[in-house]
Amino acid sequence: MTRARILVTGGAGFIGSAVCRHLVRETQAEVVNLDKLTYAGNLASLREIENSPRYRFIRADICDRETLDAVFAQVRPDGVMHLAAESHVDRSIDAARDFIDTNIVGTFTLLEAARAYLAKADAATRDAFRFLHVSTDEVYGSLGAEGLFSETTRYDPSSPYSASKAASDHLAIAWQRTYGLPVVLSNCSNNYGPYHFPEKLIPLMILNALGGKPLPVYGAGANVRDWLFVEDHARALWLILNEGQAGEKYNVGGRNERTNLEVVHAICAILDRLVPAGAPHAQLIRHVADRPGHDLRYAINASKLETELGWRARETFDSGLERTVRWYLDNDWWWQPLRENVYAGTRLGLTGGA
Ligand code: NAD
Fold this sequence. Notes:
GO molecular function: dTDP-glucose 4,6-dehydratase activity
Structural class: alpha/beta
Enzyme class: lyase
CATH topology of the domain at 5-193 and 227-253: Rossmann fold
Distance between the termini: 30 Å
Helix content: 40-55%
InterPro entries: dTDP_Gluc_deHydtase, NAD(P)-bd_dom, NAD(P)-bd_dom_sf
Order of helices and strands: EHEEHEHHHEHEEHEEEHEEHEHHH
Strand order of the largest sheet: 3-2-1-4-5-6-11
Bound molecules: nicotinamide-adenine-dinucleotide
Protein name: dTDP-glucose 4,6-dehydratase
Number of strands: 13
CATH superfamily of the domain at 5-193 and 227-253: NAD(P)-binding Rossmann-like Domain
CATH architecture of the domain at 5-193 and 227-253: 3-Layer(aba) Sandwich
C-alpha cells in the first residue's frame, strides 16, 4: 500500500533531499522533513520543492524526544524514512562522539518516539505504519576479491561510522522483534549524484579537477566501491517503505563495482571532453597515505529487492556519472558556498564513505 504522510529525517542531506524531491515530484505524499541542519544539511538542496503545499521543513534534533513527540502528534505520519545520521567515515575517525550521539542515541530516541506514537494511534494508522531505517553496506565490513554482500552477511564494521550504523541497525531490528514496531531495513552501497557534499570522493574530484587542484587518491586507489545513482536509491527507498515486509531487510546496489582510481579516471575523461584543459585532467592525480582501517571492497547483491519488489537501477555508472559531472558544471550556485569549509577539521575525504 502507498503511504500518504511521510516523516523524513535527514531530509536536508544528500540522500534525504533526493528522497524529498522524489516524493514531492513523483508521488502524492505529504512530506515533512525533520533535520538538525548540521554542516551536511543544506536547505538549498530543496529549493525546487520548498514552495510545494505538500512539503514542510522542521529544524530539530532526533535526540530531542520532547520535540519528536510533538512532531509525531502533529504530523501523524503513516511512514517514517529515517536517514538522519553523521555519515562521513573520515570525520568519524577524527571525532566519533557525534556519530554515537546521532546514529545510535538518535535512532534509539526516534524508535521510542515512534513506538509511543503508535501506542496512541488509531487502528488504521497502526496497520498502515512503517518505519524504514536507512543504512549502509559498510556494516558488513570488507570483502576480499570475490563474493557479494547479501541480507544474511554477518555484520563486521571497521570504522566508527560503520560501527555506529551497525548498532543502529540492531536497535531497529530489536524494536521490531521486541515491541512489534513495523520496521523495514535497507542497506545500500555508495551513492553519488547531484547535491553531494563536496567532501565526498566524486564531487571532490570533479571540483578539484575543475579548479586545477591535485586529485588525492588514498594508497594505490585499489579500494572497490559499488556505486548507485542517488535517484535510483530514492526510488528504492519509497518502494521498500510501501512494499517491503515489516521485519525484513533489503540490500540496495547498482552492480557498479569500480576501484577508486577507475572512478577518478572516469571523471577526468568526462571533463576532458566537456571542459578540455591544456593537459589531460588525470595528470592531477596524486597518491596519498591510506586511510586507517580502510575496507578493501564493498559489493552488493540486490537480487532480493529486484525479484521480490521489482526494483531496477535506471542509471548505469557511465550515464549517472555523466549526469553528475554536468550537474556540477551547471550548478556552481549550490557548491561554491560549501567549498570554503570543506577541509576544515577533516581528513581528506577521499573514498566517499557512505
Ligand atoms: P548526509 O550527511 O548528506 O546527510 C545527513 C543529514 O542528517 C544532514 O542533513 C544532517 O543535517 C542531518 N542530521 C545529522 N544529525 C542529525 C540529528 N541529530 N538530528 C536531525 N538531523 C540530523 O548523509 P547521506 O549521505 O545523505 O546519508 C543519509 C543516510 O543514508 C545515512 O543514514 C547514511 O548512513 C545512509 N547511507 C548513505 C550512503 C551514501 O553513499 N551516502 C549509502 C548508504 C546509506
